[in-house]
Design brief:
This protein is α/β, with parallel strands linked by helices and 344 residues long. Helices cover 45% and strands 17% of the residues. A six-stranded mixed beta sheet has the order 7-6-8-9-10-11, sandwiched between helices. A five-stranded parallel beta sheet has the order 2-1-3-4-5, with helices on both faces. Keywords: DNA-binding, Transcription, Transcription regulation.
Length: 344
């Protein structure tokens, strides 16, 4: 395939040997299909970042490691690459390691591989489990600073966290759901992708505490472990609707909203209020179609910019600064949606 990048640069981007990259590019065989995909993905990443590499300054190679549905990891990738030119005079190059689900051991293996290969920093969205915390400690010991993104690992050796105030977001969702349901009867379905993600746990705590004070008569029905994926979310929602005929509203903490709505439709049930998180491509479309009541959104570009600044400070490239403040939570309805370039 035609491209302007030297084999050495592609190998560095992909984290592979030059010999492996050469075999893939020249079709000589003996390479796993997954490895070939990594090479082609590295070339695509380099191509997207080509305009930024002309900036003069110090270069940082940063690894973004995320366990997240594709719709959200795509939004994070777009937000980071949109911010790269603003980091001038530094040049930030990025390698992406995305997976939707899987055992924690696979995520740990990725982090340990980065530690052996070397990196100027890791931006990490991962479940808060002991083995991941231990892997962050090994990265720190190897001199690789880690910044947690969206969901925190507070007991780890990470150098900082960027994201929104999740308890405030959950409380905001409770306020909206309670106001919009008004005097109508009905219970509220709360949906988490996994109990292992601290941000989702904090959102649920903020929501539950506020509902308990402001709307004590409403029951909350919780489902979890759908991983935010439509394929698994549908069955969880459908079962909850069959168990509880009074569910009338949804607070979607972890996603899978297309499947949730389909479960309501297939059950012949109305979802009177539906509050979700993040303006990813699914939620943007659902909001435009008025199938969601509101989306709680925070500025991913701001978060990624702050994360890169934390990495630069860890290497002494920027002066020290005060603590990183949480991103503001925005309530987005079909009538105040940001333009497409800002919604990512």
């Amino acid at each position: 395939m035609g491209h302007p990048f030297p084999i050495r640069e592609i190998a560095r981007q992909a984290g592979l040997s030059e010999a492996t990259v050469d075999r893939v590019l020249n079709g000589r065989g003996g390479v796993r299909e997954s490895t070939a995909r990594e090479v082609h993905r590295a070339i695509a990443d380099l191509d997207r970042q080509r305009t930024q590499v002309r900036l003069v300054g110090r270069t940082f190679m940063v690894d973004i490691v995320m366990q997240s549905p594709e719709r959200f990891s795509t939004a994070v990738r777009a937000a980071l690459e949109a911010e790269l030119p603003s980091l001038h005079p530094a040049v930030v190059r990025s390698r992406f390691h995305f997976r939707e689900t899987g055992p924690a051991g696979e995520l740990v293996a990725v982090l340990d591989r980065i530690g052996r290969r070397g990196s100027q920093g890791v931006l990490l969205k991962a479940p808060d489990v002991p083995e991941v915390t231990a892997a962050v400690g090994r990265l720190a010991a190897a001199g690789v600073p880690v910044v947690t993104l969206v969901t925190d690992l507070p007991a780890s050796a990470r150098i900082g966290h960027v994201g929104s105030d999740n308890r405030a977001a959950g409380a905001t969702a409770a306020h909206l759901v309670g106001q919009w349901l008004g005097d109508r009867p009905g219970n509220v379905l709360t949906s988490l992708s996994s109990g292992s993600f601290r941000n989702e746990e904090e959102r649920e705590m903020g929501f539950r505490a506020t509902m308990r004070v402001r709307h004590p008569g409403r029951s909350l029905v919780e489902i979890a472990e759908g991983q935010g994926l439509d394929a698994t979310q549908y069955d969880l929602v459908r079962a909850a609707l069959e168990r509880d005929p009074e569910i009338r509203a949804v607070y979607s903490i972890g996603g899978g909203n297309i499947a949730t709505l389909r479960a309501f439709e297939d059950a012949g049930r109305e979802c009177a209020v539906f509050v979700a998180h993040d303006l990813d491509h699914d939620n943007t479309r659902l909001l435009r179609e008025h199938r969601l009541s509101a989306v709680l959104h925070h500025d991913l570009r701001h978060d990624l910019r702050e994360a890169c600044h934390l990495v630069m400070r860890a290497h002494g490239a920027l002066p020290p600064a005060g603590p990183t403040l949480p991103s503001a939570v925005q309530v987005v309805t079909p009538y105040n949606m940001p333009p497409p370039t800002a919604a990512g």
